[in-house]
Design brief:
This protein is an alpha+beta fold. The chain contains 22 helices and 29 strands. Helix content is about 35%, strand content about 15%. Strands 2-1-5-14-15 form a 5-stranded mixed sheet. A 5-stranded antiparallel sheet has the order 9-8-19-18-17, with helices on both faces. The longest helix is centred in the first third of the chain and has 32 residues. The termini are far apart. About 40% of the residues are buried.
């Protein structure tokens, strides 16, 4: 009976042991099955580095701030220091230090919890690389040990050490020894001395506690512990240890975060990278991204904007419900037209997420006019072609009063002017009449070929004449405007704007290289004629504030309600677009006063209104600094361009009576060959201003004025200024017709200013009167009349 009992107990014990062993094996197998596979392990996340065009590091994009370096670039002292303090038997064990495990096991049993670990470098790599976590559980320890064995099976010791030194967290935002070396000592890891290597090697145990930024004394003590351990193991001599201990710890001060450089450009590049490679690769792939940004141009752009705000020619007010409370906002972008490289980008006056240089779609105002003029030049017009700058009546809607549309600046009209003059002075009437002649559809086609992509279906209506003045249903972006104007600078070739030139993966293999799209959209002569006209916008027109004292061209643009102000200009080498406006489309009229009643933003004794003048001012301030050290270059003149002296009123060759001539550029194929016959010899005649008839000897001297006229046609000629308008309270019509010396005076409607025409549609001109004034009698007759009035009652 006793024997059977003993056999039963023995069998039970064996069964329990077998079950326990089986359960343990099963549990371990289950844990291993849930452990990540490392057969294709290629390292964890590595920071993406973004560089400027000249190789300066602009920023890093990362989940973990890590820069990978090969083992041969890591100092032997640092390798030995890590091994000495973290894993003395690294080169002996096979991933697991069993003596260390036994020691830790006894300690944990005595304390009744997992208070001490025995992780080797390989185990730490497994834990850190595959994000197993830091909780001290048997589950995690088994996974860690298994992975350590797998690492040792698949990789050599130097490979494991290299991965570890690049993966380990070393405090603050630093992962890996290269990032730590830059963070703490502002140098590369291969530049570290023994003392600095020992300090970094001491960090893995408690990175933030032993950080010299947080606890310099603790960092020094820990460094010395590492040096002592290296001495014990024979890695260094006692003299080297003493010298390293005595060396002062010189760290880079832990400065507060500085303002990010070129933040809008960097986010633009980031978005382009994510679009091409995906967020995981961008933030973890260790890419090296080489961009087009010119740091010097970027700094000059930011300085110019700061200066504009400090000098208050661009005001600062606070608004609610806008992307950035500070208004008005602005954008600036510079492109190299030959290759499309974006050299500078400012997307706002702050650092918000809305990049106005590429995302703000705003009305361009008169900055759109060059697309109309370009279409005309393509169709055979020339800078010397003339259009009648006289008022037009808007289409009447039932119940609405008559009104003029479009209206020129200050309601001034000049009669016949050349396209060059009209563009110089940004004359609205001429732009609209020109659009009527060349067509809305063809103008939009020209703009699209030059890079504008924001047109809407309603913009394409044939009667959408406000297009000539920049009246788009959606608008344009500063980037696309710069790119489009770049076609003029680049002799008719459009080049796709690019911000990224090359991308390398973590193994320095080229995975992307920019090959921007290029296409010929204008002939060289069309591009040159437009450039030549836009040059005089600056030398003699509205863009004078952008003068650089070297070849430069451009165009101003202001919307009717002053919600948008533009200047887009270019040299042969660079094109820059500047936009100013409020995010919520408020008019930029700033009449705020202080407590004493003084204007906060004074201009000529009143509040300031922002227009293209300020945009051109900012453009000029910036570009003058940019080109200061650059050689002067000139716009290339095509072989088929000639210069011809013409009459600016008819656009034809002058005759001997033409009072004023100008030199104009033409293509040889469409230069004028006909001599104008409008101008004739000029005579002077005296007119009674009261009757408008020829003055006689009876007209009072103060009533007599002199008119000039052509002797043959009797057409009256200038100079002269003629006002017109209606006195009705609901009318919107008023204006001034200005005539230069020697130019024929058109006959206009006195209420609307619209020129009168013959039955055949020819403009009618004022002519000299043929009848004499009869309002005034001889003085003797006047005397008899006076005597009669005195004595007539006596008869």
């Amino acid at each position: 009976m006793l024997k059977k009992r003993r056999q039963f107990i023995l069998a039970t014990i064996i069964l329990i042991i077998a079950l326990g062993f089986g359960m343990t094996i099963g549990a371990i197998t289950w844990i291993i099955q849930n452990t990540p596979d490392i057969s294709n392990y290629k390292g964890t996340s590595e920071a993406t580095l973004i560089y400027s065009a000249d190789g300066q590091l602009l920023t890093k994009l990362y989940k973990q701030n890590r820069i990978y370096v090969p083992l041969e670039r890591i100092p032997v002292d640092l390798q030995n220091a890590i091994i000495a303090i973290e894993d003395t038997n690294f080169y002996v064990h096979h991933g697991i230090d069993f003596w260390g495990i036994a020691r830790a096991f006894i300690t944990n049993i005595m304390k009744g919890r997992l208070a001490q670990g025995a992780s080797t470098i390989t185990q730490q790599l497994a834990r850190n690389a595959l994000e197993l976590g830091f909780e001290k559980t048997f589950y995690r320890k088994i996974q860690e040990a298994y992975l350590a064995l797998q690492f040792e099976r698949l990789y050599t010791k130097p490979e494991i050490l290299e991965m570890y030194l690049n993966e380990i967290y070393l405090g603050h935002s630093a992962y890996g020894v290269e990032t730590a070396a830059q963070q703490y000592f502002n140098k590369h890891v291969w530049e570290l001395d023994l003392s600095e290597c020992a300090l970094i090697a001491g960090l893995p145990k408690a990175p933030n506690y032993y950080s010299p930024f947080n606890n310099l004394e603790a960092a020094r003590t820990r460094r010395n512990v590492v040096l002592n351990r290296m001495l014990e193991l024979g890695y260094i001599t006692e003299e080297e240890a003493t010298r390293a201990k005595n060396k002062e710890i010189k760290i880079v001060p832990n400065k507060p975060d500085e303002k990010e450089f070129a933040p809008y450009f960097i986010r633009y590049v980031r978005d382009k990278l994510i679009e091409r490679f995906g967020a995981q690769m961008v933030y973890s792939g260790g890419l090296k991204v080489y961009t087009t940004l010119d740091p010097q141009m970027q700094k000059k752009a930011e300085v110019a904007i700061k200066k504009a705000l400090e000098e208050k020619y661009i005001p600062t007010v606070e608004r609610e419900n806008t992307a950035d409370k500070l208004q008005p906002q602005m954008a600036l972008i510079t492109i190299e037209p030959r290759n499309g490289a974006i050299r500078a980008m400012v997307g706002g006056r702050g650092n918000d997420q809305f990049n106005r240089a590429v995302q703000a779609v705003r009305q361009p105002g008169s900055a759109f006019k060059p697309f109309v003029y370009t279409t005309a030049i393509k169709k055979g017009y020339s800078p010397g072609s003339v259009i009648n700058d006289m008022p037009m009546l808007a289409k009447e809607k039932e119940g609405e009063p008559l009104k003029l549309w479009p209206r020129n600046f200050q309601d001034e009209y000049r009669g016949y002017v050349t396209l060059r003059t009209a563009l110089n002075h940004s004359i609205n009437v001429v732009a609209v009449k020109l659009l009527q002649q060349v067509g809305v559809s063809d103008t939009i086609k020209t703009a699209e070929e030059m890079g504008i992509t924001t047109f809407q279906p309603a913009d394409r209506n044939s009667d959408h004449l406000s297009l000539a003045l920049g009246g788009l249903n959606k608008g344009v972006t500063p980037l696309e405007m710069a790119s489009a104007y770049g076609v003029f600078a680049n002799q008719g070739i459009w080049v796709e704007p690019v911000a990224i030139t090359r991308v390398l993966d973590k193994r320095n293999r080229v995975i992307y290289e920019a090959h921007p799209e290029k296409r010929i959209v204008l002939s060289e002569d069309v591009a040159y004629l437009m450039t030549n006209m836009l040059q005089t916008v600056i030398s003699h027109g509205t863009g004078w504030r952008a003068d650089l004292k070297r070849p430069v061209a451009g165009k101003t643009g202001t919307t009717n309600n002053y919600s948008d102000a533009w200047f887009v200009g270019f040299t042969p080498d660079l094109v820059t677009s500047v936009w100013i406006g409020e995010d919520n489309l408020n008019p930029m009229e700033y009449n705020q006063k202080d407590e004493k009643g003084n204007y906060l933003f004074p201009e000529n004794g009143r509040g300031r209104t922002i227009s293209s003048s300020e945009a051109a001012h900012l453009w000029g301030d910036y570009m003058r600094e940019v080109v200061k050290e650059m050689p002067v270059t000139h716009f290339k003149v095509p072989d088929n361009i000639v210069t011809v002296e013409i009459d600016p009123v008819t656009g034809l060759l002058p005759n001997r009576f033409t009072p004023r001539t100008v030199e104009e550029v033409f293509r040889k194929s469409n230069q004028p060959t006909e001599v104008e016959n409008l101008h004739e010899p000029i005579a002077t005649v005296k007119v009674d201003k009261e009757s408008g008839l020829l003055a006689t000897e009876n007209c009072p001297e103060e009533n007599i004025i002199e008119y000039n006229y052509f002797t043959d046609s009797k057409i009256r000629v200038g100079p002269g200024t003629f006002s017109f308008g209606q006195e009705s309270s609901d009318t919107e019509i008023e204006g001034t017709y200005i005539v230069d010396t020697g130019e024929p005076i058109q006959k206009i409607d006195p209420e609307t200013g619209v020129p009168q025409k013959s039955k055949t549609g020819q403009v009618l001109y004022e002519k000299i009167p043929t009848r004499k004034c009869t309002l005034h009698k001889p003085e003797s007759s006047n005397l008899i009349d006076s005597i009669w009035e005195l004595f007539k009652d006596n008869f």
